[in-house]
Fold this sequence. Notes:
The structure holds 2 protein chains of 2 kinds. Chain A is of the alpha/beta class. Chain A has helices spanning 44-51, 74-79, 97-102, 115-129, 144-158, 174-189, 201-207, 230-238, 297-304, 327-332, 342-346, 353-357, 375-388, 405-417, 435-450, 462-468, 491-498, 503-508; strands spanning 4-15, 18-29, 33-38, 59-64, 67-69, 82-85, 162-166, 193-198, 210-215, 218-224, 256-266, 272-282, 286-290, 310-317, 320-321, 335-338, 368-369, 372-373, 423-427, 454-458, 471-476, 479-485.
Amino acid sequence: MSETLLKLDKIVKTFPGVRANRGVSLEIRKGEIHCLLGENGAGKTVLMSIVYGLHQPDSGQVIYNGEHLDLRSPKDAIKRRIGMVHQHFMLVPTLTVAENIILGQYPPWKILRHMDRVEEKIEKLSREFGLKIDPKALIHTLSVGEQQRVEILKTLYHGVDLLILDEPTAVLTPQETDRLLVFLKEMAGRGLTVIFITHKLDEVMQVSDRVTVLRDGREVATVVTAKASPRMLAKLMVGREVLLEPPPREGPKGENVLSVKNLFVNDERDLPAVREVSLEVRSGEIVGVAGVSGNGQSELALALAGLMPVAGGEIHLDGSVATNLSPRKLSCLGLAHVPEDRHRMGVVLPFSVAENFVLHEFDHPPFARNGFLRYKMIKSHAMDLVRQYDVRLGGVDDEIVNLSGGNQQKVVIARELHRKPRLLLVNEPTRGIDIGATEFVRRQIAAQRDAGAAVLLISSDLEELIALSDRLLVFFEGRIVGQIRASRDRIEEIGLLMAGKSGKDLVEK
Amino acid sequence: MEPLAIVSFLAAVLAATWRLATPFIFTSLGEVFSERAGVLNIGLEGVMLIGAFTAFAITFFTGSPVLGLAAAITSGLACGLLFAFLTVSLSANQIVVGAALNLVGLGLTSFLYRSIFSGRMETAREYVSFSPLEIPFLSSIRFFGDILFKQNLMVYATPIVVLLGSFILYRTAFGLSVRSTGEHPRTVDSAGLRVSMIRYASVLIGCGLAAVGGAYLTVAHTNQFNEGITSGRGFIALAVVVIGRWSPWGAFAVSLLFGFFYALQLRLQAVSGITIPYQFFQAMPYLLTLVVFVAMRRRAAPPGALGVPYKS
C-alpha cells in the first residue's frame, strides 16, 4: 500500500498571463484514493492534465512507477495505463458508446469490421464492474450519470492503473454521487489508484485516504484524511476562516412578487422544456429550484427573463402581466437577472469593467446626455461599485475578460443588485467561482432577501440551495415534482425527486 | 404533347440528369468530409474553377484528359493545403478565407486563360475528352439505355467514389476520427489524435474532389474552358451538403435532384411554344435551393464544431 506510484517534482506550468503551477510536488501511493482539493484556479486540473499528457510542464519531473515520464500526448499516458475522466466529458454526442470508446485506438487506415466484438467486450466489462450501459446507445441519448459511466468504461477498456477524475460529482445527483464513491472505493480495493479532483469538502472526507490541498498553484499540505477535519481543510484551501452559510432570517414574508401560472416553454429545438409550471415567490423569501441540469430550469429562467418565448401560461410580476415582455421592460418592472451563462449573457467580454456596469442604464442620465456617453460618470459609478462589492482588479478600464470568474460574477451581481430589484432571478450564481467569492455572492443574495426582494434561486449545487433557500421546488423533466422545506436532513428525499422517483415509488419497492 | 413525345422528353431529361449531377456529386462528397471534420469551405467555387482550368490547359497541351484530370487533382490539393494552412494552422476565419479563394479562383483562371490562350483563338479546336462509353447490350435497352448506359467514365465513377467515401467515413478508424473532429474536437485531442492532421486530411480530400468536379466540366462534360464556367456550382454544392445532411449518399441523392432540375430547365428552354422567358428556367435550380432551405429550416443538425477553429 505504501509504494509510490506517481511522483511529481516541482512542476511549473505557465500560460500566457497565468501561472497555473508554481512548483508543485506530490506523491501518490499505489492503491490509494488521493484527493486534490483546491479552489477554482488553484491549478488542480492543469496539474493532472500534465500527468495525462495534455500539457507539457515548463519544468519539473513526472516520475511514474520509478520511471521518468515525458508525455507528449494523451496517447503516451493511455499506453502507460493512466486514464482521465474530464470535468467536461470527452465524448462525441452523435456517436455510439462503442465508437467513442475505440476512438483513437487504431491507426487511421484500419477498417472497423468487428464492432460487435468491441461491443461484446464493453458489455463484459460493464457487467464485471457493475457499470450498466448499452454499447450501441448514442451518447446524446444518455443521462449525464450514464455518460460518466462511459468515460470510466473507456479507461477500463484501455486498461488503467491510475485513474484521474476531475470534479466527477459536479453533474451528479446525490444518489449517483454515492454510487460513484462506493464504486471508487471498491476499485481501490482491487488495486486501482485514484486521483480525485474536487472542491467539495464532504466528498474528500467520505472517499479519500489522503488529501493534498492546492492554493494559487502551490501545494499547501498533504494530510491523511482520517486526521483532518472539513474546517481545517477549508482553511487550508482558502487561507483564512470561511463561513459558507449566511445567517438565516426568520422574518415575516411579504406580498406576492412573482406568480407564474401553468407556464409552458419550449427549448431551442422546439421541444417542450417547461410543462405546466406554477409557482409563487413572495417578498422577503428565497425559493430554490433544484434539479439535475437539463430538466427545464434553464428554460424557466430564460422565459422569466424575457429571453425565451413563453408558449403558454402567464407570468405576473408585482401584479402586472410580465408574459413575453422584452428583457428591457422586465428590467423596468424590477427584475434583476444573474444568468447561468456568465460569458454569453452576463457580461460583454471585450468591454471594459466600467462599461459592463452600465449595460442596463448606459442610454439615459447620468450616463448619457443627448445620445453621447459620459465616460466620467460611467467610471465613477464603476469605481463606487468596485469598492462596494470588493471586485479585485487593476482598474475599471480593464477588459472584463481579464478578470477571474469570481470577480466577473461580482461585477454581474453588483450591476444587478445595486438597482434594488423587486425580483432577483439568479441561476447558478457560484458555478465555477472560488470559495471566497462564493461566500460573498451568497451573502449578497441573502442581503437582498432581507431588504425585501423576492429571490428565485436556481442551482445544481444542493448545498447552496439548502444553505440559502426557504423552500425548494424540485424540477424533473420540466415539471415541479416536489416542494420541500430546505433542510439538510431531507437531502435523500430531494435526491430521489431529482432522479424522477417519488416517495411513493420508493415505498412500493 | 403526345404520350410518345412525353416519354422521349423524359428520357432526354433523365439522361442529362446524371451527367449534370456529376460535378455536384464529386464536389459535395468532398465537402462532406471537410465539414464532417469541422471545416466549412465556401471557396469550393474557386477550387472548382482552378481544377477546371488546370484540367483544360493540361489536356490541351498533352492531349490526354487523364493527365488533365491528374493535374486538376494536384491543383485542388494545392488549394487545400493553402486553405488548411490558413484556417487550421493559423485559425483564420473560414468564411473569409473561403471567399478569398473564390475571388482568387475566378481572377487567376480568367487571367491565365486570357494570357495563355488569347493568341490561340483556335482553342475552340476540339481535343479528345472523356467520351461517352456505351456499354454493350445494356445501352440498347429502351429508355433506360440512354439514361444509364451511355455516359462517360467520370459519370460512371460517381457511385463508386461515393461508395468508397461512405465506406471510409463510416467504416474506418480515419472516418471515425473525422466524424468526431467535426462534433467535438476536444475529445479527439484527449484521445491522443491530432485534430489539425485530421482537418488537413479532410480539407485536402474536399478540395481534391472539388477540383475533380471542376475538371469534369472541361474534360468530360464539354471540351473547352470559358471564364466562370462553373457558374455557381460550387455554391450549390454547399447547399447539397446541407440538404443531404452531411452524408455521402445523401449528397449523391440531392446532387441527382439538382441535376434533374438543371436538365429540366435546359430541355424546357428548347420546347417550342412555351413563352416563359428562358431566364426563369435558368433560375430554377437556384430557386429550388432556397425553397428546400426554407422547407427544412429546423431539421438539419450540422456538425457541432463546424466552422470553429480548434485551440488546444
